[in-house]
Every structure is written in structure tokens, then in C-alpha cells.
Amino acid sequence: MSVQRLLGCHTSIAGGLEKSIARATDLGIGAVQIFSKTASRWKSPPLDPAAVERFKLARAESAIGYMAIHDSYLINLASPDPENWQRSSDTFIDELERCKTLGIDDLVMHPGAHLGSGDETGIKRICEALEQAAEHSGQPVRILLETTAGQGTNRGWRFEQLAAIVAQSPYVNLGVCFDSCHVMAAGYDLTERTSVTNTLDEFDQLIGLDKLALFHLNDSKKGCGTRVDRHQHIGQGTIGEAGFAALLQDSRIMSVPGIIETPSGTDHCDDHRNLDLLRRLSCGKN
Fold first, then answer.
1. Does the reported pTM lie above 0.90?
2. Domains of the chain
3. How far apart are CA 124 and CA 164, in angstroms?
4. Per residue in 85-96, pLDDT tens?
5. Are 91 and 74 in contact (CB under 8 A)?
6. Pairing of strands 212-216, 106-109
7. pLDDT for position 111
């Protein structure tokens, strides 16, 4: 029996954390990604216990099968600047604590940018921050290292870099979030079945497909190897419908949930179109 893939999108927490559940229910989706606070600020007020209970009740009463939090975009665990690195580490630990409080098992994060200090130093800094995270928060929350497009000095655009973090990190409860737009832009061809198979084979050899925990399913406005992160609606970018069909139909990863991160459109019209297309492509229907 085939496993039906959980598909969904990033939903807003405007008006309260529990509102993200209501929005997901209205969309009829089974997978949700949220921010637990304003993503463009270092600090946010502690979670209100009453708000946490409302969120947990709403989630328990919903049909959502998978949830993840995406951490703040300000965090840079590879920073060579001691002050920025410590602030990033402290904020990341707070993100983990918020996951624990809300009962959400996965935290998606961008590995970070070394800002000229070099790959080896950048990865070392990331692992030092993950060691602090393990010491302060334990490891009940799985950290998902997101593949990046490779803009600037961002790490995580090559599978070898992610493999090095996994191998060296004292925080062992790690997985990978595979962003299709980022992977394509980083230079891994996702346009047709053979190239998709080759990309997943390489991922498996270097990291292991058992570590692939979540997809960010976004088409790419830019071509393979451009190292430019520009999301596009499904089937309207350089990956195209054939690429997504090949990715979604690979039998090794059929159970991995997928989240879209594209503009939702008026009344979520584009969310519905993207998700409907992904469901058809997953089943082999154009």
C-alpha cells in the first residue's frame, strides 16, 4: 500500500499561534510550518501559557499530521563575530525551547554564513552552537538543516557541507530539510527523472536518505547552478512539472512531508493551485 504524502504550506500566526491551525484547517492541508514569533526580531515575549494551551487544543482537534517551526532569519550560527554568534546561539536555543513548549518536534534552520572566515571555520562555529543547544535544551527537538542556494558565503548548498555538520555535531538529533528551489539553484539538476535520481543517490551516499525529514517544495525562477534563491510557483519555474513528478514519485521518499513557501495569492488561490498540482504529480497525473 502506498503512503499518502502529507502536503501543506507555511501558515501565518497573526492574531495568535492557534490561528495558524485554523488557517491550515481552512486550506485542508496535512502539513504545516510556522514561525513561533516574529522572524525579523531577535527577541520576543515569552510564550503565554494560555496561548500555548489554545494552540495545543486547536492542533489536537485538527487533522494536521505534521508540524515544524522555522527559526528566525536573523540567526547565523556560522558567524565569525563573537557577539553576533552568541546572540544567534542564544536565540536559537530559545527557538528550541519554544518548540518544546508547543510540542512541535522539528525546527528548520539555515546553517549559516561564514562571512569570509572559510568553510572549515564556519562549520566549526555551527557545531559549537549546536553543542550549546544540546547542553541547554537537551535533544528532544529534531533540528532540520535546510539546504541552501549558496548565495554569498551561506553554507549548506553542497551535500558535503551538510554531511560534515551531521558528522561533527554534538547535537545528534539532526535531519535535513530539502528545499527543491535551493537544491536546483545550488547546481543539482532536478528537471527530469534521471537527474533527480542521481541527485537523491548522491544525497543518500553523503548524508543518508533516512536523514531527509522534510521537503520545501518550491520551483525556482533561476536556473541550475546560478546560486540565486528565488522561489516560483510549482511548474512555472526551471524545475517544471516533470522534475516535481520525478521527485515526488521516487519510492524511497514517498512518506516525507512537503511544505510550499510561495506567495499564497488572493484567498489562498495560489496555495490551492500549487498543492492540487503537487497532489496530481505525486500520483502520476498531469
1. yes
2. 7-282 (3.20.20.150)
3. 10
4. 999 999 999 999
5. yes
6. unpaired
7. 97
